[in-house]
Amino acid sequence: VQLVESGGGLVQPGGSLRLSCAASGGIFSVNAMGWYRQAPGNQRDLVATISSSGNTNYADSAKGRFAISRDNAKNSMYLTMNSLKPDDTAVYYCRANIMIGPYEYQYWGQGTQVTVSS
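Now predict its structure.
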């Protein structure tokens, strides 16, 4: 099983980015998914989560600016980020709880860099 993120890059303050995360491999189903981020010298923090039924949860820093979504048919998840600030600069990681047979496993992607700078 692999989680592959894409969509990071350099953006000016106030700009937007859309991150994608795709799960592939011997997957039976994907349960809860989430985005996390880690800035240099900091711990990895929650950005947003989404359940298999679409219920969402956001960190206070993401509320009103970021939107998490998923496409269950594609085993994919997205993070649309608007009104980006320099403080949003970090490596963004996706996480997924994946059913393989009768068991649930947690997987992480390799991360994608988001840099907000003028």
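The radius of gyration is 14 Å.
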